[in-house]
Amino acid sequence: MAGQDAIGWRQRPGFYVGMMLASFGAIAGLKLSGAIPAPIGFILLAGAMLWMIPLVRTGMEKQKRCGVLSPAVVRYNRRFMLASFGYMLGLGLAVWLNDRFDLAGVVAFAVALLPVIPTLAMVWTMARYLVEEDDEYLRHRAMIANLVGLGAVLSVGCFYGFLETFELVPHVPGWWAVPIWAIGMGAGQGWMALRNRERAEG
Amino acid sequence: MKNRLKVLRAERDWTQGDLAERLDISRQSINAIETGRYDPSLPLAFKIADLFGLAIEEIFFRDQP
Q1: Cβ atoms within 10 Å, residue B8
Q2: What is the ipTM of this complex?
Q3: How many domains, in total, are found in chain B?
Q4: Containing domain of residue B7, as a range?
Q5: What mean pLDDT do residues B21-42 have?
Q6: Other C-beta atoms within 10 Å of B11: how many?
Q7: Is the pLDDT of residue B59 over 90?
Q8: Low-confidence ranges of chain A (pLDDT < 50)
């Protein structure tokens, strides 16, 4: 569409998805190669999460242009962004506390919950969206994206787990499931958006 | 499942947005249904049929009749 063509790359959510994925990939590479210590990795990850802000903003503008910015989508975007920041904050705080203090017992359990609570908020956000979304096609798309995210977690987790069992790769904490799920879900949405690129109306 | 939603819409000179507004769904949903990428639920199919004053089977068809 002519209107779409006139939109600059800074207004395209795909650009920010790409930047976030590239950032995650670069940080994971640096961490796995041992080039950076864990605390620096978390700080960089928290920084990379800031791509969420322009991503959500441009995504909502695009949804508005396409006429799919339902009230449920607005609530979902806001809740998910807050939960994502809470996750990074909780994760960074938990790792920082674990590095500096000899955590054990109930305290260690409580600290471990710091990143888990925002993760549960993400799951709740998705569940609420599926309940609140009145548009069945948008709900269907959200469910497909969730399945792609789940597939990414299962396949990457299983494959990496076996590589780890065969001592081919270093150990990676299980919490990586959350970013992989989010990346998979985003990839699912991107794939559907690409596939469903709307034709110009006659 | 095939349908003639686009034809019915064109006969009334409605845009996808017009039809979406009348059905209280997103324009993307109309696009997906028209192009056969998404089959509507029975309640939505009834809603579409009611809007055009037709029976469901006059709008939606089996792939292999």
Answers
A1: 18
A2: 0.90
A3: 1
A4: 2-61
A5: 92
A6: 10
A7: yes
A8: 1-4, 199-202
